[in-house]
Amino acid sequence: MAANIPTNAQAQGGIGVSVPTTEHDDHLHHEEHHEQSFLSKYIFSQDHKTIGKQFLITGIFWAILGGTLSSLFRLQLGWPEATLEWLTPVLGKWIEAGKLNPEFYLALVTMHGTIMVFFVLTAGLSGTFSNFLIPLQVGARDMASGFMNMLSYWFFFVASVIMFSSLFLETGPAAAGWTIYPPLSALPQAIPGSGTGMTLWLVSMALFIVSQLLGGVNYITTVINLRTRGMSMSKLPLTIWSFFLTAILGLLAFPVLFSAALLLIFDRSFGTSFFLSDIYIAGQALPNTGGSPILFQHLFWFLGHPEVYIVIMPAMGMVSEIMATNARKPIFGYRAMIGSLLGISLLSFVVWAHHMFVTGMNPFLGSVFMFLTLIIAVPSAVKTFNWLATLWRGNIRFTSAMLFSIGFVSLFISGGLTGIVLGNAALDIQMHNTYFVVAHFHLVMGSSAFFGLFAGVYHWFPKMFGRMMDEKLGYIHFWLTFLGVYLVFMPMHYVGIAGFPRRYYAWTNFDSFSQFADLNKFISVAAILAFFAQFVFIFNFFYSIFRGRRATENPWNSTTLEWTTPIVPQHGNWPGEIPAVYRWPYDYSKPGAEQDFIPQNVPYSKTQSSNLPYEREMAD
Amino acid sequence: MVALGILLVLVLLLVVFGLLFRLQILTSIFSGSFVRQIGTSNRINAILFIVFMVVGGGAFAWSFIDNYGKMNPAIASVHGHAMDNMFWTTMTILGIAFVITQVLLFGYAFKYQHKEGRRAFFFSHNNKIEIIWTLIPAVVMAALVFAGWKEWTKITGPAPKDSVVLEVMGKQFNWLVRYPGRDQKLGVINYRLIDASNDFGFDLNDKSALDDFTVNEIHVPKGHPVLVKIRSRDVLHDVYMPNFRVQMYAVPGMPTKFWFTPTLTTEEMRAKLGNPKFNYELACNQICGRGHFAMKMIVVVDDPEDYVAWFAQQKSFAEQNPDVLASFKQKSQKLVGNVESATPVAAAVAHVPTPIAL
Fold it and tell me: Do B199 and B295 belong to one domain?
């Protein structure tokens, strides 16, 4: 095996950075000589593929937990009068006289948000696929730094352990909402969850951010420096573009959250007043003056808004790739797709205050942010049109991955459009913090990112485990989930338009919010059923790892480099030389070509019959 | 024991499911359909997309129409009508975009499903069409931004000078409300002065605080601009009055405000909705702790005459809490060492200008 791995200095020569790769190869030689121990192969692995799988499986664990939490609070919202006594074996003292403790309800909501946004859709989605796909698709033996990459996972793991353990605290986990606005999150007197629970939340998130930064630096470096010969930036698959820009967003945005968390830690533990002022609580006037809770919101959303794009962009990239592959058609407007990703990335940093229109922020700022926010709809619209045009006159195979990709576009449209309402400051006065917002972001970033994740898993599963996932179970999973998501979130818009506030333990105290008891029950039923449908996926996933149909090297007849590796690539990815790249990744159904796809590593000289006029020169 | 039983049932169900699944795979291997990449399932999925679009779209349209009457909170403010118009205009535009794109998505998925022997159309880009579909959303967005910006500046602009003023203070977990009294000036308050008998933290050394009065129910006059000043004394809260289309955070240490003009009295709204129990409600809309979901206050919109009469009946905080007033007097006497203290309450209440220009 080791003898088969040549130095890839010449393979990487095209981009002029060969120093790290040579060194890296020596290291590879060294490692291939002796059998890897279980510990270094599966646990403290530096192989990007294993790390990707570690992220994925940890993400699945978190997704089950996050979904369970949502089922619990949907029970409360659907049947506010019912007794939940039967949950006592699980929830213990949080069930008081048959009722869910309202503070624990808030903790459930908080942890659901934190888990889903950060641990599943950031770490589980981009952690999995950036790790797994970047080296494979750019043609590198591994990430720029395998060690840092390993650290990235283990920091995430420690963050996970801490966050998980906070669920079992006497005072409960953090309960101030996933946005942890102070003063609520700063004062244990205000809510018990802001005691140790919040401390653990902050520590866990700090470690999580370290993990993200270690990962992000690696992704960026790998994409810039370790592309194989011929792989120019304009030949990168859209997946890589989206992972690359996602990593840049994370690198620029997460430190700001880190600073916000740090300042909050200071306010909580060391008596500073960054976010606290003029507070009388629990019979006591606090000494803090001069701080601003709004400052925290600015810092939080400076991360928080790019964060939603950190969540959605990898899904966009994978969906583009999967759609082109399964429609057997080039992605429409490759450059426009990259352009719109760039546009979204840039704009995502200047729209954060649209979460804060009614916080008392200067109305002039509101106008500016409304303007910038609605601009971001344009690149999003362009992407949607391009996906539609990709389907147009295609020859579509409905693999499970393709179904989830189409579902992604559908959900992205449904959820994205209502963003235009919420981005309008004047309309946000009424809609802010209502279930309209909840419906909006669950469709556009929650569900659609999940659909991207599922699409990715179904599509790249053969490369991950050398086996195929079961297609029929995939179909069942898709249709149940697709239906479930729409049944949950479409009616939720009505509830939102009626002004139902989010994070309410029950609406029964208000006459204004009493007309939709039935609808809330309906939503709860749909949500819980959709959650249970996910176990079809879980079963399929773990079953197929061990007993799935054996995969071939390139089961989807795809063009990108990862499918030129052996069925289960070993550490180093290609046994021989890394293939060079000659063409863009979307030569599907090219007129004149023998097959309906031409892999990126096939030179133009071998495809004379299908070369376009400008490509003929390159063939010589 | 029950838990064990449930667990057992779940495990058995899983086993049954696993066996059935295995059986299905074995039969499909046997029939040869296991390795086929594109079979009848491709066609079924394509059809399901159309079914989903038609049935789902129909169900959505039906449920939307069915619930439409329930989902619009009755409007009772001037800007509320403009906002509502803009909301439904925007929703109509979005609805059109929604239908077009979803129909194309599902339609294409069905129409261009795999057919043996057909090749997809190699179509990588088309600058003209891409420019067109970049410009269209850009223009629509520009129009929406402009309309929204105009409305936003109007709503958030300065309140008219003759507005009725009141102040709402959020606390865990209820609202405190005060009115400026006859002098039309809200007195000084200080969070350090808050205690059990002085919830608002009135500084009664300030003359204009002497006639401020607190209430348990907000009253505002119909047809007259109302300026709501907003504070919080502990964590973030959010003043949300859906019927008036009013929402603004209550931020500790940073007073905020929102003004609006009510258009229908509570009585008129009751008659209009045919609901004799209807009340305007003020809700908290920013997570604030255990009682977040129960922070309610009733808002009553009166005819202006009734409002004036109601206003005249209110007794100032100082008058109702002579102990607090006395303690302030003592303190200030100690400090200044002078008997010349705050004006007696009676004097402040003596001259009675109408609280609003009728």
Answer: yes
